[in-house]
Amino acid sequence: MNVRKGILNYLTLHSTIVRRNHHRSYHKECRQQGSPHGMEKNSKMKNVRPNYFVCIPLSGNKALVEEFLKVQNHVASKFEMLKECAIERNKFHISLLILHVKKSQMESSKEAFHEAMAEIKKLNHQAISFDTLETFRNDVLYAGLQEGSRKYVMNVIALLRDSFAKRDIHIFGNRTGREEARGKKRASGASDKSAANPIDKSAANPSDKSAAPPGTHQRDDKEQITPHVTIMKNSYLRKIYSNRKPQIFADYYADFNLSKLKNERVVPNKIQFLEMDTDSATSYYRIIAECGLP
C-alpha cells in the first residue's frame, strides 16, 4: 500500500510540473511573438491573402501599352504556354500598395486612401519612365522604373503606407533587392535547362491558401515594396496547371529591345483604390475610390 501510494504521489507531482512548464513555455513563446496571443495572431496572418490594391492606371497611354504587348508577344514566342500569362491591355498599372482589407475595415480604408491623396497632391509631380524588365521569382514579369521615377513613386507609396498602416490595415510587400539578386542567380543557373524543362513541378499547390501570390510577402518592411508594372504572371495559370506552373526565365525577355519603352513617359493623372476582382460590366477591376492628380 505504501509503495502504491508513493507511486501515485510521484505521478501527481510529475503531472503538475509538466503542466506548469508547458504553461510557462507557451506564454514565453507568445511573448516572443510580440503579444499575449502572438502565436494565434501570427498563424492567422499566414492565411491572409491580398484582396485590394492602390495603383496608377496606365491604359490611357496607348504607346506604352503597345510596348507592353510587344513584350508579351516576345516572351510567348519563346515559350507559347506563357501567352496565357499575359495581363489584359486595359489592366496595366503601376502597383503602389497591395492590401488585405477586412469587411469591417472598408470605411476606414476609404478614409486612409483619401487622407493619403490629400498629401500626395502636395508633391511635385513628374513624368514616370521605365528602364528594365525583371521578375519576382520568375513568376511575375514586370517593367521596373528608372531611378528618378522610382524615388518619386516611393514618396507616393510612403504617404499611402502611413495612412493605411495607422488604421491597422494589412500591407503586403514584394521582393527585396537581395532576394531578387538571388532569384536572378538561380535563373541564370537554370537558363540552360529552361528550354527542355520550362515548367516548375516543385511549385507549391495553388490550393494552399497559406501561400501568398507570386511576388508578395506577408511582411510589411518598407524595403519590401518595389514599384513596378506587371506585364505577365503565371498565377493566371493556377487553375489550369494545378501545381505545375511555367516559369518566366530571363532568356525569354533579356533580348527584347527596350529603346522604345525607355523613351515613353507617363504623367500620372489619377490614383485608384481597387478590388482585385474584375467588374463584369467593365472587364476592369472594381473601383472602390479614385482621385485625380493636379
TrEMBL record:
GO BP terms, alphabetized: regulation of protein kinase A signaling
InterPro entries: AKAP7-like_phosphoesterase, AKAP7_isoform_gamma
Signal peptide: none
Region (Disordered): 23-43, 176-227
Pfam families linked: AKAP7_NLS (PF10469)
Organism domain of life: Eukaryota
GO CC terms in record: cytosol
GO MF annotations in UniProt: protein kinase A regulatory subunit binding
The A-kinase anchor protein 7-like phosphoesterase domain, residue ranges: 50-292
The protein's name in its UniProt record: A-kinase anchor protein 7-like phosphoesterase domain-containing protein
Source organism of the structure: Plasmodium vivax (malaria parasite P. vivax)
